[in-house]
Structure formats: structure tokens, C-alpha cells
Amino acid sequence: MENVLKVCDVKLTYKTKVKSSERPVIVLAEDVYRLLIDYVYDKEIIQYKECLKLILLNKAGKLLGVAHISEGGIDETSADIRIIMQAAILGNATRIILAHNHPSGSLKPSTVDNLLTERVKNAAKLFNITLLDHIIVTDSGYFSYLDEGRIL
Questions:
Q1: Domain at 24-144, CATH class
Q2: What's the pTM?
């Protein structure tokens, strides 16, 4: 019984294989879109199923990485706030950008998209992390909450 009462040791490490000077800076929604289309989304499934990604940035806006959060069906995917925040915290991000694709090709955000944006924004604030944008991606364009004045 004595062993059960002991607190576990937790060791935190942060390993990176990329120098800060080599990291791209993300400034505009167009930068995010190019990153997603050129390097992240599989062109063969972008019209097939919805995938939620989280772009992790440091205070200087340099790209720390892109976390795959979830993959779903034709018109929805899971968006667990705890998984999103876990990725942001473990990735040492101070700024984040949500991104997901709409297989339908529609750039109009849904009510669920709007709710997710607000929930992530509020959760991130608790950890002094800023949600910079939520981008909806299609194979022919994007919608940016920031560009449309919907994230303040």
C-alpha cells in the first residue's frame, strides 16, 4: 500500500531538430493556406473527409509545427478542446491557428465552426495562448476568421 501513495515523478523535456533561424514566420492567412495546401493536406483526401489541424507558433510567429488533431467523415470531425490544448501546451506554443478542410468546397463557416472557434479562444486564454485565426480550407481557397474580423 505504501507504494500506491507515492507521487509519480514527471520529467519534462523539449527536443527540437530545427534551429529557430530556420523556422518560417507565419504572418498572413495566405501563409497558412500555402503551408496547408503545399505541405499538410493530402490532395487526394481534401475533398473526401474532414481533418482538423493545429498550427503551433512561438511568440515571434515562427512555425513550431502542425499537429494533427482529428480526422472524420464527409462533413464533420471531432474537435476535443482538451486534445487541442494538450497539443498547444506540449508543443510550447504561445500562439495557435486552427485549420480544417471542408470537403464540400464551401468556404462558409458552420455554426459548429463558430462555436469551436469561440471555445478554443476561451480555453487558450486560460494558458496565456492566443488563438490567432481559424482557417477553413478547400482545394480552391480559404476562409479566415481573422481576415473577416471574426476573431478579436
A1: alpha beta
A2: 0.88
- Residues forming a β-bridge with 54: 67, 98
The CA-atom distances, in angstroms, between 39 and each of 14, 36, 64, 110 are 24, 6, 14, 25
Question: How many other CB atoms sit within 10 Å of the CB of residue 119?
Answer: 14
Angle at 63 between CA 144 and CA 103, to 5 degrees: 40
| Distance, CA of 41 to chain centre | 13
Q: Per residue in 11-46, pLDDT tens? A: 656 677 888 888 999 999 999 999 999 999 888 888
Buried b / exposed e across 7-28, counting CB within 10 Å, b at 16+? Answer: eeeeeeeeeeeeeeeebeebee
What Cα–Cα distance (Å) separates residue 125 from each residue in 8, 95, 128? 29, 10, 5
